[in-house]
User: Which sequence fits this backbone?
């Protein structure tokens, strides 16, 4: 009998990432996501590039850009490529049916959202633990805020029924995003009306962007013990 897998979630992430990357073809402009699952997709793209696949990547974070350079993936930016064929990225929560997401526990939600919205298709790669009936069930909503007056911004966010906590990095200082902002991780009980909360966060002064990605993903590649399957939006 095979010994039990000590980390099935990593294996599922790998399967999801490789399944999504197998759909790519020559000539595509590809958004490169951030986070541990997206990093596996970037590694799989690197392998395919080494085997001759001709694509150009647009990274969603400095970390992803560094990983892609090491793999010799040709890179560009949104200044040079105004549209992207497909972006492959991870997520912290996915609601099947709507394909609404929470993203940003890795801290890159702003660039991820900009790249996602410039993409003809956003494919999300996850292990099945990320599937939830209602957003807010297992992950806080990361909200990127300008540093100036952040405590007053946090109070405004509290008035939307969320509980914001300033994210602290491993060096003990506030976590700094690639855009030079801070992140408030906002605990929410399961969110009954995500569109309403999105509207409130969108109009909160001091908020740069938030991790609610509603109606943006086109397809989810989710992997579990049975292998990978794809989820499409019910619309
Ligand atoms: C990065 O900012 C995030 O949006 C990630 O895509 C998300 O947190 C999922 O990350 P993992 O694949 O590491 O769980």
Assistant:
């Amino acid at each position: 009998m095979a010994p039990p897998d000590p980390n099935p979630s990593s294996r599922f992430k790998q399967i999801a990432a490789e399944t999504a990357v197998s759909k790519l073809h020559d000539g595509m402009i590809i958004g490169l996501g951030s986070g541990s699952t997206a990093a596996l997709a970037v590694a799989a793209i690197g392998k395919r590039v080494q085997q001759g696949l001709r694509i150009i990547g647009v990274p969603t974070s400095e970390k992803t850009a560094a990983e892609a350079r090491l793999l010799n993936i040709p890179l560009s930016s949104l200044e040079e490529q105004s549209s992207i064929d497909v972006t492959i990225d991870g997520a912290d929560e996915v609601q099947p049916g709507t394909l609404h997401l929470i993203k940003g526990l890795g801290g890159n939600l702003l660039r991820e959202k900009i790249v996602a919205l410039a993409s003809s298709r956003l494919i999300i790669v996850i292990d099945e633990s990320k599937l939830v009936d209602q957003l807010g069930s297992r992950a806080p909503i990361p909200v990127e805020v300008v540093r100036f007056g952040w405590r007053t911004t946090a109070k405004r966010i509290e008035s939307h029924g969320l509980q914001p906590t300033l994210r602290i990095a491993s060096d003990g200082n506030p976590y700094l995003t690639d855009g030079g902002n801070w992140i408030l991780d906002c605990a929410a009980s399961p969110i009954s009306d995500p569109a309403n909360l999105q509207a409130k966060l969108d109009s909160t002064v001091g908020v740069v962007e938030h991790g609610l990605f509603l109606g943006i993903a086109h397809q989810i590649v989710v992997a579990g013990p049975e292998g990978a399957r794809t989820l499409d939006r019910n619309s």
About this structure: Residues 36-50 form the longest helix (15 residues). The pocket of arabinose-5-phosphate is lined by residues 33-38, 89-92, 103-109, 112 (CB under 6 Å). The CA atoms of residues 15 and 227 lie 7 Å apart. The chain is about 30% helix and 25% strand.
